[in-house]
Amino acid sequence: MEKKNRYLLFGAIGFSLLVLVGLYAFAKQNAVYYLRTDEVVERVETKGLEKVSKTMIRLGALVKEDSVVWSAKTQTLRFVATNRAVKEGNEAVGVPIVDIPVFSIGAGPKMFREGVGVVVEGYYAKPDCVEIAKSVEERADCLGDVAPGAFRSAAKRCGMSRNVIRYGEACQHGVFDQGPVFVSDELLVKHSNEYRMPDEDAEDPMSVYKTVEGM
């Protein structure tokens, strides 16, 4: 009987450990990490824009004052993301203030406004819009008359390349004329201005970002 109880105890401990490991893995997988604007630019300087642009990024920033431009006609939203609040808090003295232009399809969340904290999920890039325009022209018959905000779904239906799907609509609006732009897949209003970063001991902090391709 004592031996049986020992087996039951070991079994319970083993099961508890499995549950704890599972909960930890789930929490880690679903943790929301994001970078400030200066950290995005720093990664571009270190790894190059082409490499950084291939990975989905979550950008945590403030919406810069007097930068929001919304067009109901084209269903496009533009604003400038900034890390200007870094100097106002105790986060990192001497951090350079960096502004990044953001392009998004569709209206922002209900609480979206200038000065509010946001998390923007998407890609920071400067694609070859000439090549993308050529691809769009070649598949014009398949794309048909695309309604504002519906280009991505139409491009996917026509089996077009990832770059065309991601940046085709942004290229049509000339958003890359002045340089790289953060093209948003999802825009959320933050409920806290606290920046959360990946584990600094990780081999590559960018590894915490999971691509949204294929989802």
Task: Write up what this structure looks like.
The protein has 215 residues and is α+β, with helices and mostly antiparallel strands. The chain has seven helices and six strands; from the N terminus they run αααβββββααααβ. Strand 2 (69-71) and strand 3 form a beta hairpin. Helix 4 (129-138) packs across helix 7. It is globular.
List keywords for this structure.
215 residues, alpha+beta, five-stranded mixed β-barrel, 7 helices, globular, disordered C terminus
Summarize the structure.
This protein has 215 residues and is an alpha+beta fold. The protein has helices spanning 2-30, 37-47, 49-52, 129-138, 140-143, 151-157, 162-172; strands at residues 57-63, 69-71, 76-82, 99-105, 117-125, 181-189.
Order of helices and strands: HHHEEEEEHHHHE
Instruction: Determine the fraction of residues in helical runs and give it as a percent range.
Output: 25-40%
Unreliable stretches (pLDDT < 50, length at least 5) are 23-32, 193-215
Count every helix, treating DSSP H or I runs of 4 or more residues as helices: 7
- Give the strand order, joined by hyphens, for the main sheet: 1-3-4-6-5
Taking the alpha carbons of the first and last residues, their distance comes to 52 Å
Sheet of most strands:
5 strands, mixed, barrel
Rg, Å, rounded: 22 Å
Q: How many β-strand stretches?
A: 6
Mean of the pLDDT scores?
A: 78
Percentage beta strand:
15-25%
Taken from the alpha-carbon principal axes, the silhouette is globular
Q: Which structural category do the helix and sheet elements fall into?
A: alpha+beta
